[in-house]
Amino acid sequence: MKLSVVIPLWQEEQHLAETIRVIGDALEPLRGDYELVLVDDGSTDGTWRLVREAAAAHPEISALRLSRNFGKELALCAGLERARGDAVVVMDGDLQHPPALVPEMVRIWEDEGYDVVEGVKRTRGPESAVRRLEALLFYDLLRRLSGIDLRNASDFKLLDRKVLSAWSAMPERSVFFRGMSAWLGFRRKQIPFDVEPRVGGRTSWSAARRTQLAIRGITSFSTLPMHVVTLMGVAFLLFAVVLGVNSLVQWAQGVALTGFTTVNLLLLIVGSMLMIGLGIIGEYVARIYDEVKGRPRYVVAETIGADAGRSLAVAKR
Fold it and tell me: Which residues lie closer than 8 Å to 28 by C-beta, 6 or more apart?
């Protein structure tokens, strides 16, 4: 199998048939030497029914349904661990990642020898100013904290089999696909694309989910926030020493320290910093807690296509 195309799905009933048709037309130059790996991430609409119908009509489709909604990152894990191709393309199921670029990605991989061909956003599509600002702040903060530059990055990538093997050897359960694939390195080439409007449905990326992903990305690739807590403690210690010396001098001179405003402000500031520091440490403890439990990344409820038993075994490891 030359190419696997992994597509996570959630509540895609309205446009799944159109998505499969457009992707199939784009992959026509490969003359059938490919597979579509569809991962239903616990959809509650008719997505899985349509997946079954499509798999019955198209032998190149294999699929798995997760037992509940585990999130896009873990649905990607399920699809990548099932893929059999010499190269794997990851893309969304709403056609915001243009399928027409996949043949060009394959050509670059074959003819130019790049291990990773990644789509980068030339334009971000119909996005609100708030979301653009959120993305800008997150990527800038991640770059400053971890050194990983993901500006305009996307999940739209082609990975060579050796890159996928290296990625599969990363066992963490707190998954941030873009960061993990960037951390691996390898020879990579970027290909720009314009984010298209969604072909149907509504995005599931609420503000809460975006915030959760941002926290996961930062805590997975940088321990600097914990060092910042230490630096804040040192700064307040120095401030306390200066304030203590000043108080002793005033006491020795018989000058009373008037008013409680300064004391109140100090208590509020120190208390806030302590709570923020405990919160930051708590995020890292939560990451450790998730890892040491040893639960599987996902649970497969049903599979369609070849090697179904292999996918179930991977889910239970």
Answer: none
- Helices (H) then strands (E): counts for the chain: 11, 8
Confidence of residue 72 (pLDDT cuts 50, 70, 90): confident
Give all strands of the β-sheet with 116-123 in edge-to-edge order.
188-194, 116-123, 157-160, 87-90, 3-9, 34-40, 61-66, 300-304
User: pLDDT digits over 110-119, tens only?
Assistant: 888 888 888 8
Give yes or no for residue 165 having a pLDDT over 60.
yes
Query: Whose structure tokens read 């019955």?
Result: 56
140 pLDDT more than 80:
no
CB 14 within 8 A of CB 201: yes
What number of residues does the chain have?
317
Contact indicator for 74, 44 with CB cutoff of 8 Å: no
